Amino acid sequence: MNISEHTPNFSWDEVIFSKTAIERGIDNSLPVELKPYVVEFAENILQPLRSSLGTVIKSTSWYRNSKLNEAVGGVFNSSHTWGVAADIHSPFVSIDDLFREIQGMHKMNLLTGLDFCKKYKTFIHINGFHPDRGGSKSPRGLIVS
Fold first, then answer.
1. Domain ranges within the chain, ordered by starting residue
2. Mean pLDDT by 10 residues, the chain (145 residues)
3. How much is the pTM?
C-alpha cells in the first residue's frame, strides 16, 4: 500500500523495513502518531526526487524505533526515529549523480523541508524537518558531500 495518493513509488513496508530488525527480531512497527511526518517527508522530498530522476530510489533505512536505532549505532536524537530521514541509493544512478540531483533540486527549492543531506560512499542520508528539534520550524538546508 502506498504511503499516500501522492507517493506512488513508496510503500509503508519500505518505511519500516530493516535488515537489522529482521536479523535481531526487533519489531520496527511505525506508531500511528508518526504517520503524518512520514507522509510529509515522502511527499515533499522522496517522491519529488524519485519523479525528477525517473528511476527507482531504494531506502536501506527509513523509520527506526529507539531499540533499532540503538542497535545500528544511530544518534540518540536521530530523525530516523521520527520517520523523517532515510538512507537512500538507486540501482540505476550513481551516488554522485543522485547527490547532484538533490543539490540541484534544493537550489531550485523543489525539496520542501529538506533539513540535511550527506553523501556517503554507498548511500545518501537525507532528512526532512525534525519535529522535535528545539522548536525550530525552519529546516537547516545543509547539504554535505
1. 12-144
2. 86 96 97 94 95 96 97 93 96 96 93 90 91 56 62
3. 0.90
Per-residue CA distances from 28 to 14, 41, 137 (Å) = 11, 18, 27
User: Which residues, in sequence order, are CB contacts of 91 under 8 Å at separation 6+?
Assistant: 56, 58
At a CB cut-off of 8 Å and minimum separation 6, what does 133 contact?
Answer: 77
Distance, in Å, from the CA atom of 95 to the CA atom of 120, rounded to the nearest integer, reads 8
State the residue for C-alpha cell 517527508.
41
Cβ-contact 80, 38 below 8 angstroms: no
Task: Tell me the CATH architecture of domain 12-144.
Answer: 2-Layer Sandwich (3.30)
Cell of 81: 526515529
